[in-house]
């Protein structure tokens, strides 16, 4: 009888818990939205300390922190 009561209590508590947002968590989204050896992040526009290096897709830029950019000789 006690186990039946415990099961009922657990079911009631589970029905009261709000649903979680579906989809990947922030860490997984960040891994899949990285570019250029995981040093850059795909965004619509780059921040002040970042610079555009390559395209991620048609609409997003690969924004990389300036300290991770390759050194270009001759400029």
UniProtKB/TrEMBL annotation:
Subcellular location: Secreted
One Pfam family recorded for the sequence: Defensin_beta_2
Keywords: Antibiotic, Antimicrobial, Defensin, Disulfide bond, Secreted, Signal
Residue span, Beta-defensin domain: 34-63
Entry's Gene Ontology cellular component terms: extracellular region
Chief location bin: secreted
GO biological process entries: defense response to bacterium; innate immune response
Signal peptide segment: 1-22
InterPro entries, sorted: Beta-defensin (IPR050544), Beta_defensin_dom (IPR025933)
Family: Belongs to the beta-defensin family.
Known function: Has antibacterial activity.
Name of this protein: Beta-defensin
Gene: DEFB135
């Amino acid at each position: 009888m006690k186990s039946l009561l415990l099961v009922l209590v657990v079911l009631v508590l589970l029905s009261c818990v709000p649903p979680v947002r579906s989809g990947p968590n922030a860490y997984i989204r960040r891994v899949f939205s990285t570019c250029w050896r995981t040093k850059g992040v795909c965004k619509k526009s780059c921040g002040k300390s970042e610079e555009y290096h390559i395209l991620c897709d048609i609409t997003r830029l690969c924004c990389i922190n300036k300290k991770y950019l390759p050194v270009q000789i001759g400029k």
